[in-house]
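Entry for the shared binder. Reason: the reviewer on the internal report wants the predicted structure included alongside the sequence.
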Amino acid sequence: MKTAILFPGQGSQYVGMGHQFYQEFQEAKEVYEKADVILGFPLSKLCFDGPEDQLRITMYTQPAIYVTSLAIWEVVKKLGIMADFMAGHSLGEYTALTAAESIPYEEALKLVEKRGLFMEEAVPHGEGTMAAVMGMDREELEMVCHKVTEEGHVVELANMNSPGQIVISGTKRGVELASQRAKEKGARRIIPLSVSGPFHSRLMKPARDRLQPLVANLKIKEPQTPVVMNVTALAETEPMRIKSNLIEQVVSPVLWSESIEWMIHQGVDTFIEVGPSKVLTGLVKKINRNVTTYSIEDLESFDQFQKGWR
């Protein structure tokens, strides 16, 4: 029986996240306090008190989720969990690599802040967006996006979240047209996402190009636990390949469904989500109902985990 630790990405944030761990555990408090010093502003206050509008801005959202997830992990790991794999959704990949002792906390935090800023600035505000498409075949949706892009409105598959949920990303018009045509072709539901840009699409190339030299200079070691990466949906341990994947991840689809299926194929039967919200736990259950899932985001869910953990 094998275990995987999962770390959430953008969209999982909420005001108050991590506060109970900050109050209760010194390890968690230290993670937040270090972040405030490294970034030069009170990130902890933003996580605990908001305002929500600021917390939703990508350059703040990404470090906030990264720090909160790691603060909770510092407490959870004391239970002695032997993880066989780690993975994170988009931004969460940086959390996974830090938890796996591949990238030092301070360096990763600075990089995550820059990544958020570069992604925020890659496309003028309001020109790009994303939408979740429910209940449509991947190949059919890909054809719809390809046709709309050929017509001059870029739209691409961005997140393969589960067999019934694919996120598309592109120009505002591209996403609107693809959403409309997907609905006509039988998509069950379209949910426009409240995001500040067309993430994981070719429109993020300016962000990738700015991130590339920073990732290239990153001090990175072989992870203690293999990290299953978004770009390949395979476990990676080789530092140069990890760097290459981190750079490409900005413009490439997140192969989340494939990543979970690959881990299950390796014998993983238990997935533990560490960080705000329960988004990834929900997706895992849609991918395979037979696995065991836990989500740890507050003291109540931490207590439940300790009672249920074998």
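Summary line for the report: The chain has a mean pLDDT of 96.
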